[in-house]
Structure formats: structure tokens, C-alpha cells
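Reopening this one. Same input as before:
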Amino acid sequence: MTDPFADPALSPASAAFFTNPGHRAGPYPEAFKATLSQAGHLRAAGVVSAWAGYAPTPLVSLPLLAGRLGIASLHYKDESGRFGLGSFKALGGAYAVFRLLAAELRRRNGTVDEAALAAGRLKEAVSDITVCCATDGNHGRSVAWGAQLFGARAVIFIHATVSEGRAEAIRRYGAEVVRTAGNYDDTVREADRAAAGNGWFVVSDTSYPGYTDIPRDVMQGYAVMVAEALADLDAPPTHVFVQGGVGGLAAAVTAHLWEALGAEVPVITVVEPDKAACLYESAMAGRPVTVTGDLDTVMAGLACGEPSLIAWPILQQGAGAFMAIPDEAALQTMRLLASGVGGATIVGGESGVAGLAGLIVAAGRDDWRAALRLDGGARVLVFGSEGDTDPDLYTRIVGRTGEAVRAGALR
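Same output, byte for byte:
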């Protein structure tokens, strides 16, 4: 097996690590249950599991890589096949669209048949409703898919550096795609302005002052993935490495594990691109910090400069550490997974492998291992949050198409 530490891109020297002084032990705080809770997860799971095509995604063991990293086990939750959309975002955006449409029909009519809405039998009733959002790709695809599934119209805003391949993937679900100048955070504001001017409904995966309800639903949908992973494990994880971005995924993972496992909650490390590390900087400052600039990282789904208003408090207390890694660490991890040398062959996208890349980097430095208690008994869970959602980019990075990698795994 190729030594993952041999490549400079996966060396701790190229990354930053911060042990979170705000981390708090103890039971999941009651105050956080208004944002994310087991009750909310059960509601979301009941809706999502009834959609056509639902099936739990695979939890893949990587025993060879675990051995090389000096840990007991490593499991990778592979979201690349979720509802055919290629990422975990299918759980959040579409569920939030469902909840929004149900609430609007209830407001109009006093009641709503949620089963009929979920089955697409109320398309005429919601055909005059337009949902919109800003996206780096995957969230917009989920919102567009959900709108098409239930019968609403979707307008999706993308920023200047989002690839045309990702834009076309959104259009396939019947959405109008609007490209704007600026970065992701600028596009969030543009979507909000357009919605206010046109009577549309914003379905955002980030929250900001005056806008928190829908992002809660997005995040609650993500918890379906976490519950599936727990159900497949023989023992709860002792450690989780999870992608950052605005913090929605990381907070959903943290909250679900914290409430479900209580005193056995794992040590959670949040991993971000070093060019868009707003959560890392917030942890360093002890308050939400906005990172400015073009946020030009290959990890497009994590190219976010402003923490989510409702995600940050959960991470501030629930995350044990924060990391910032260079782009090349993610690229090398994609290639490692595609090679099969870790014990399984996996198609992992640029943003989807960030948590695993963070683990590999952290495992290479003794003081970081000690801070995380990452030893020979560690059972690590990572979330492969996307597959080859930009097939052309994946092929350029890995040297083979996603289809070829998957075909090789089947032989």
C-alpha cells in the first residue's frame, strides 16, 4: 500500500489544527433542541424514507487504511448514490422544500394532505410557488429536485466559479439557473433580494439574522444520514471527522450524535479548506467570524465565508477541534480512495473527502493525535458527502471517470 503520509499534501505541515477551548462535555443542551433534536429527526426520517427510491447509503469499512493510520477501525458513509443526486444534500434541500410547501398550503387552506404532497399528487396546488436558493452545486440540485418532485418552480443562483457541469446538473431537474458575480456569500444575498422582490421562497442551507426556520429543516434532514450510520455500526464511533462549509452538516452530525449517544458522544473534528475556513477562524476568535475574498478552493461545496447563525453555537460547544487543510490534501485523498488501497474502492468528490483527508493529516502528528485521543482503540467515522457530482472535474483529478472507478470496484 502507498503510504498516505509520504505525499507532502497529506503532511501536517500543510494544515492547521486548533483544539476548541469552547468544547463542553455533558448532556445535549435543552436550548439546542429548538434547532436540532431527536424528535425532529424522527419527523424528517418518516418523510424522507417514504420517498420513492429511498434506501440507506452504504457504510464502507476501510481496514487497510485504518491499520496504516494506527486506529482500530475506519468507516466511510458513502453518500454518492443518495436518490441519484450524488450527495447527502438530497436529504436536506428537498426535505426543506417539502416542509415549506406543506406550511404554505396549510396557510392557504387551513389543512394539507402531507402524504399526497410527498407523493406528488398536489402539483397543481403548488405550481404557482417558486423556491430559490444560492448554491455551490449540490444544495441547489437538491432544491431543484424537490421542487420538481412536488410540483413547484425553482430558481437557483450560482456564483462565478461554479462549474458549468454543476449548473447543467441543476437544470436537468427543471430549474432556472442564474449565475451571479462574487462568491457564495454574495450569491446568498442576491437570492434573498430576488426572493423579496418576486414573492419567492428562499430555501437556504445557511441561516442569517431573520432567517432560521428553513435552515433548521435542511439540517434536520441531514440527520437521517447520521442515524443510518449509527444503525450500521457494531459500536458507536469514538471519533468523527466532518466537513465544515457554513456548518450545517457539521452541526447536524454533532447534534444527532450528542443527543443520541450522550456520554459516549465521539470527539468531533470539523475540517475546512484553508482558503475558506470560517469555522476554524470563528473557533480561534470564540465568536462567528466572516472570511472574505474569492474563497477559491477546489472543495467547492465548502467555499463558504460566513458561519450559519444557528449551526455555530452547536459547533462552538460540541466540536472538539477544528482543522484547515489545503486543496491538494483533498485531491490526494480522492485518488487514494479511487485506488482501493484503503481496503475498498470509492468514488469520493472534492468536498466529500475533506473529513477523511483531515483524519489522515491529523494522524501524522503526535501532538494532534494526543489532543484528540486518537489512539489504537479509536473507531473513526467519516462522511463521504458527495461522489463525482462534477464528472469532468473528477476525471481530471483522478485520471479516470467515476464510472471507470466504480466498474473496477465491481470486478
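So the earlier flakiness isn't reproducible anymore. For the record, The chain has a mean pLDDT of 94.
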